[in-house]
Amino acid sequence: MTRMSCVQGEAPTQHRPARGRPLRVVRRLESARPAFATETITAEALGLATRDTLERAGSIPSRPRLAIIGSRAARLPLCELAGAAVAVAGARGWSVISGGALGIDAAVHRAALREGVPQLAVLPCGPDQPYPAAHAPLFHAVASAPGSGLLFAHPPGTRLARGMFASRNRFVVALADAVLVVQASSRSGSCGTGRLSLRRRVATAAVCGSPGCGLLIEAGAHPLPGPAPLGFSVVGGSFAQRLERWLARAVPSGSGELGAAAAAELAGWPESLRWLARALVDAGPRGLGVDSAEDPGALLEALTEAEALGLIVETRPGRFRRCV
User: Fold this and answer.
1) pLDDT at position 284, please?
2) Where are the domains of the chain?
3) Which of 16, 155, 204, 230 is the most buried (most CB within 10 A)?
């Protein structure tokens, strides 16, 4: 009976246990060894108001930077939408940031590589334990791309823990000039990152259609339309067009004021629904509630038509906000 052991850098050797002794298998843990060639930098060197020490591989892309984040269990149309957002940002001279996770984040990083857009992956780990491990080839590609790089929120040897994701998210917000949440559940890290962005008064937008994004829109995030249903056109322009207009302004919205840009978009509303558009503006960032209507039946009929046209989103049951 034999047992095998392998020490890094050495060939496997065989061991025979002493006669009469039970075989005990011992697993040896490798010492922390960075999987990437990194440089230690301070958060202050990145313009952040903290004393953290970080590990960097590659370059930090120049500003302005758009953080694009979302769910790990993302719908394919929304992953494609994230890729479209990268293309729009790159065309306007923005670099992009994401968190290296499955789903939306991975779609962002791959689209940036494909489009040649400078990017930064902010990872919730040390350089010796890239997470998720399956994305190691993707991370190497990002670190090697021109003007792009990786930023590790923790030093080598740090064991993965749930709290590490929160520290990653605060760096994402701190380094971004604007934040776009593509898809989020109501209690997800993506929704929490969007809330943090709003609290810090970073320009924040959310794509209509998921519960977490609905909560962010209700809290003041700028609403952007999701993928249009087959056979439908979205009033007020496509997702890419509206994202481009929002990036051109790059200021937080949700004040409830119509403004010049929104007034121009009002022309895209059907004549029969313009009263609803004005009522939604008057309702402010909390949205228009069905229970407050003098004629709930007429309001529900108008809301149903507006929702089918992609003009509004239901942020909470019975409460609506504009998507245009």
Assistant:
1) 67
2) 39-254, 256-324
3) 204
